[in-house]
Design a protein that fits this description.
9 helices; 8-stranded mixed sheet; about 325 residues; alpha+beta
Length: about 325
């Protein structure tokens, strides 16, 4: 088990839930309205305000983009009410993971963040990452991104004591995954295709209720760091390898200090030491219910995990006022 951090105080566990709740509730006003940018902007503004109310010295290491691309919660932005004096914390965040899902009123949109001590989260470039993940309870090294999908599925099936046809795999529904999907079909696997939101897809392997055994396929590298933080908290396994489509993306990676372009990143390369992961549902999903606006209150569902304790808490909130607003 990871030793408890002197920086991440226990109180921050529930504070992180309050941050994701604020972002989720703000975004929920735009569910089904068809405006991705407005939904994302609402979540970003609410999350930033909530972070700036906390007594720490935080730095965004995974955010909305580089400073010239994002006016708020950009990579390198300082947040928190104790700059220069409070505990120094790195923050990876996605105020609205699933902007298209939110705009269309589709399932599995989340507000997500992870925090760790300074230097605990990889500052990943905004490129694609090939990802492979399983939840807790498997022998170390059960998955290997250098092996074929078939070999990985067979290894997980053996460890689980079932036939490969009984394994459920989550894959992002994209044309680039046609060959992967065809290979999994030949094995007889069940495949849960998701439209967007690969953070929710990866962290689904942490919860047996989702029935998802393995996550495979490529998605955003920053989202990979967020998902790795969740798996770090529950003892899952994750591997990722950066994918580059052109020289510009390789140059961007070099600016972030990436020298080995073929490196396979393991869980602790992405999220090390003690860390806290929190997520709140915006729309109903496989893990979390979405925000519900009722006549007399707003309800939310969240999950928060901590690596040092291995604790997973499911939090149902009932708010008489908008989270983050003065009552």
């Amino acid at each position: 088990m990871v030793s408890a951090s002197h920086v991440l105080d226990r109180v921050l566990v529930l504070e992180m839930v309050r941050v994701t709740e604020a972002a989720a509730v703000a975004a929920s006003r735009l569910v089904g309205r068809g405006d991705e940018k407005a939904a994302d902007a609402a979540a970003v503004e609410a999350m930033r305000a909530a972070l700036n109310s906390l007594d720490f010295d935080g730095t965004v290491v995974i955010g909305e983009g580089e400073r010239d691309e994002a006016p708020m919660l950009f990579i390198g932005e300082k947040v928190g009410a104790a700059q220069g004096s409070g505990p120094r914390i790195d923050i990876a965040l996605d105020p609205l993971e699933g902007t298209t899902l939110t705009a269309h009123g589709a399932p599995n949109a989340l507000a997500v963040l992870a925090i760790a001590e300074e230097g605990g989260l990889l500052n990943a470039p905004d490129v694609y990452m090939d990802k492979l993940a399983v939840g807790p309870g498997y022998p170390a090294g059960i998955i290997d991104l250098a092996s074929t999908p078939t070999d990985n599925i067979r290894a997980v099936a053996r460890a689980k004591g079932v036939d490969p046809a009984e394994i459920m795999v989550c894959v992002l529904d994209r044309p680039r995954h046609e060959a992967l999907i065809a290979e999994l079909r030949r094995l007889g696997c069940g495949i849960q295709l998701i439209r967007d939101g690969d953070v929710s897809g990866v962290i689904a392997v942490t919860n047996p209720e989702t029935t998802i055994d393995v996550y495979m396929g490529s998605g955003g590298a920053p989202e990979g760091v967020l998902a790795a933080a969740a798996l770090r908290c529950v003892g899952g396994q994750f591997q990722g390898r950066l994918l580059f489509r052109n020289d510009d993306e390789k140059a961007r990676a070099a600016r972030w200090g990436v020298s080995d372009l073929d490196r396979i990143y393991h869980l602790e390369d992405l999220a090390k030491g003690d860390c806290i992961f929190a997520a709140t549902g915006v729309t109903d999903g496989s893990m979390l219910g979405g925000v519900k606006r009722r006549r007399d209150c707003i309800t939310t569902e969240s999950v928060v995990m901590r690596a040092s304790s291995g604790t997973v808490r499911w939090v149902k909130g009932q708010h008489r006022h908008e989270p983050g607003m003065q009552s």
